[in-house]
Amino acid sequence: MTIEKITVSPCLTSYGSKNIRISYSLREKLKLPFSAGLVKVMCGRNSIFAKIVCINEEHTLVSIHQELLKDLSLPAYPFTISIKYNPEKRWLELGPVVAVLTEIDHGEKPVSLGNIDSFCRELAACSAEKGIFFYLFSLSEYHQEKMKGYTLNQNEWQECSVPHPGAVHNRIHSRTVEQSQDFLTMTADLIQHKVPYFNNRFLNKWEVHQILNANPHLTPFLPKTELLSSKTVLERMVHLYPVVFLKPINGSQGKRIFKIFRTDEGYELDYSTFSGHLLRDYLSFDDLFQSLLPRIKKEAYIVQEGIELLTYEKKPLDFRILCHKRNDSQWKISSGVARVSAENQFVANLARGGTLHKIREALSASFELSEAAHISKLLNELSLEIAETLGKYAGGLFAEFGMDLAVDSGGHPWIIEVNTKPSKHAGERKSLAARPSARSIIDYCLFLSESNLDEAH
Known about the structure:
- This protein is α+β, with helices and mostly antiparallel strands and 457 residues long.
- The protein contains eleven helices and 25 strands.
- The strands form five sheets. Strands 1-5-2-4-3-7-6 form a seven-stranded mixed beta barrel. Strands 14-19-15-16-17-18 form a six-stranded antiparallel sheet, sandwiched between helices.
């Protein structure tokens, strides 16, 4: 079957309400017979019967009556989509349809998507290039019969009726929402209709550590980590290592992290906040623990060995490497950056004022060029091994991981953290082109949609 990318325009006249008007040139490309008669037109779960009418136009024009668009749950304004004709079944297929599930502030006009707005626009642009019908939706818009979503129209997110998706990328940012009944109802419907969705859930830090620690290739790169199940666990860790970190297992963006130093006089506690450091000194471990307890008793924490990180311009340095799935089994590196922490911060997250640098540039400040290139390659290989391990053993479908890695002064890499929904903060981007991560996500959605269609047909 020949697949063509087209721009669909709504036909507003009352004449021929069951007709789809296409140019002769498109008819020839699709190999549509002259006497096609009524054909089945499909998009997502929706289908209609319509008569194909050819018009004398040179361009690959398609005009669909607005009543038919409504029956297909497609918007009544121009949009880009792929079209193909199946001569054996006399099907005219529009799509694929891809959607991103996220939180949407419906009260804002125009609609607000927060920090991922720019990234979603990149996803929409990549989709249009490939003839994919792309939209966003929140849980409140998902319904088994008819659903609403937001498409990008004239540079604004516009709510409209949309067909059910053929693939869904989960960008819900709240663990609470992911555990809600609405989310479970939606995923049950997707499973029933064999619609793939990824990254389908958050993985907590302890869960990730246990999976990676079971891989003998990765254990040399994991700092010693324990679940903070008792006072004894913390006491043992602070006696074993001069520096340890306390991290909430469900934390993100460097929030609620404690750093404990063992000193000659006792202990020093450093709690990073957006306004700077909160430093406290304690003479005994009991005093330290009593001070920590009210702050950590409401959620689960891990205790992690502190690694003496490489620095860049006397500031802590780490590395964020994004991995994306190509197909059923292969992963690739989409991008990688060095992150330097802000003044008075011991985490390098962009949300906390960190800055971005090229990996080899940052490494070259401490190593010879050849050694910097070797370490950079090792970071990539380590990231792919992590992605393959989690993708295989974490359960559920994952296609994107953000690896937070570090390097010590000897050039040895360390696995600090893995993010299942890595930040899409745009920052001060110099290019308007879509990021490699946006292209990788749309490519994978296209792979899922095509695989699903092949299986269904």
